Structure formats: structure tokens, C-alpha cells
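Anyone able to model this chain together with magnesium ion?
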Amino acid sequence: MLVVHKYGGTSVGDLERIENVANRVAKVKERGDDVVVVVSAMSGETNKLIGYAEHFTRHPAKKEMDMLLSSGERVTAALLSIALQAKGYDAVAMSGRQAGIVTDNTHTYARIESIDPTAMKNAINHGKIVVVAGFQGMNKDGSVTTLGRGGSDLSAVALAGALHADQCEIYSDVDGIYTTDPRIEPEAKKLDTISYDEMLELSSLGAKVLQNRSVELAKKLKVKLYAKSSFSDNEGTLITEESNAMEEVLVSGVVLDKNQARVTLRGVSDRPGIAAEIFTKLANENINVDMIIQNMGTDGSTNLGFTVPESEIENAKQVMQTFDHDIEGMDYDEKVCKVSVVGVGMKSHSGVAATAFTILAENNINIQMISTSEIKVSMVIDEKYGELAIRTLHKAYGLNR
Ligand code: ASP
Ligand code: MG
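re: yes, here you go
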């Protein structure tokens, strides 16, 4: 069996932890499996390097940033390889380039275009443990590129795909995916399995265990993904293709996103093209709009509401000023949050949304906006009821059992 392990910044945060990782990797080798290890920079290292660059300028050249930031992962890869060698294991450290990862030219947010696994395969065939610096590749000119923050997860999944590895295990300081944030609901339960799509909904909703792009790629390449902790021997959570058994479970998790602000536009001219103009302008300013609600127009005007990340609200206000004669008035609310219920079971069962609305009503929580997808129901409510809503919904769907 060939497995890919990926260790995040906290898991390799100091020399003792790197030693701990070396012991874990050695065990895989001892049980007779081949292993490729992908590592992040030691925790805090990438931010420290960004700080160094910003000492000189607010806008350092992206090509130089890639040169700088890619060094963090190389340090860890080299140290882990050295630690393994010191224990008598044959290991080799590789940069992204040496591992054959070719990307496009988008410095600091490059896309992987292809992977030539020949060098890794040769090393594996010689019985070596391959340790790869995550988060990086090279473009066609041979310059180093990086894959965006959290990009080591993406490296690991891409390498697992290219090597046809049996599975890809992502290690961090949490031991899997939970039914909700255990800091909000202590009765939250770790899930044994979850589908790629549910994971994508959960992570984009704020459960920051796996980088989103890596889950998308795992889905595309059908890579069996595990989220595990490097500090325990717990089973972790398997993220995989949807199965019939998964559909039996109505709801897999509930998530709270506090980083939301609501914008409501009153008396918007009810004419073709107005929504296109508003949302194109917001998009041009890179403002990420999430939920949108528009009412039926009366007397030539309508109301339009939408949500944006809290950090974008000032930008959104500015954009809205430019629509002066098309909008009568607007109001904003930063004290809102988004509560979402996620589960593939919703595809085949009815009443999931109705249950959520009933639970919130019973707690006297007013729902300001609603949006749904095939496997998700999201509700915007007053921020001060966010945690209460999560706890009562968690219980209502039986997630604490
Ligand atoms: N070190 C990089 C970051 O902090 C990549 C990673 O850890 O995945 O974003
Ligand atoms: Mg990470």
C-alpha cells in the first residue's frame, strides 16, 4: 500500500514535534507500506516571512514572495528527512520542483498543471521515504511558485492523485470533522465519514480543517481523504464519495459563520439589468456576495438584500453610493450571522428545512434571510442568537446521539 501523509504547521511546530512526526512516519514504513510525506512550514513561519517582506514595502513583488515563502516548507522537509535518517530510515527531501510539480504562472496563487512523479517513484522503488515540501511548485520558466495559503493540503492531494496512492491522510491538531464546533456545543460528535460535497459546504462555512481547493481536487481525482490528528491515534474522519448509507443520515453537521454582514436596498428601480449592474460592480471590487434575496416589485420598485463578509462591508457601502438614483435607501447590519444545516440526506428526505425554521421559531429567533441548496439550508439571524441556534439545531437533528 502507498499512503500520502500531510502534516500541518502545528504538527511540525518545533523540533520535538518534527521528531514525533518522524516516529509516526517510521511506523508506516515498519508495517510494510510505502509513504510520501508532505509538510507545511513550522507554525507561524509563513506569517513571519510575510512580515519580513512588509518591513520594506506594502506591495512586495509576487515572484520574490514565492521565493521567500517557499523556503518555510523546505526547512521542514529537510529537517524531517534528517530526523528520519537519524533513526536509520532511508529518506529523501524534495522541493515541489524536484517532486515534479508544474504550475501556471500565477505567483502566490498558482494552479497545479501537471505532475511528473518519476523522481518520487524512483525513490519509492528504492525503498525510500519521500518527504516533499508542500505549498509549492515551479512554472514553465523554472521559477518557484506557491499555491495560496493553506496550499500544502492541495500539494498532498495532488501528489496522492499523481502517485495513485491508496489514501491521503491530512494531519493537524484536530482529530477529524465534527457535527459542529465543539467550542460551541461540547456534545459535538466526530464523524466517521462525510461526502466531499458536505465537506465543501462545511469548510466554506467556516470549519477550517481542510483547505477548500484540496477537497475539490480530491473529489475530482477520487482521492480517499482522511482528516486526523498528529497528537492522537484516533480514527479521524474519512472524506469520500457519497454512499447510500450517507443518505440515511438527514443532517451531518450544523455550522455558524459569524463573519457576515447584511445589506438591504429599498426602493430599487424594477427594471431589467439592475441586478446585473449591482452585482457586477460588487464582483469587480472582489466583494464576495453570498445570499441574495429579491422581492416581487410593486409600483416600479423592489427590495433587494444580500450578505457580504464583514470585512467587505465598507467597500460594499461605497459601491452602493454609486447607485444613487436607482436606489431609494439602504441599511446595513453587521450584527448578523449565518447558521447552516448540511447533509446529503436532504436530497431524499423532506422537512429538514421546516424543522430548522420551527426550532428557531420556538426559540423566538427571527430569520432574516434564507437560502438553500441541494444539501444545505442557511439562515441569516441576529448574531447574538448564533450559538443558541447552533446548540438547539444540533440537538433537534439528533447530532449529539
Ligand atoms: N505554509 C503555508 C501557509 O501557511 C501553506 C500551508 O501551511 O499549507 O499558508
Ligand atoms: Mg493548514
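Residues 8, 40, 150 surround magnesium ion (ligand 2) (CB under 6 Å).
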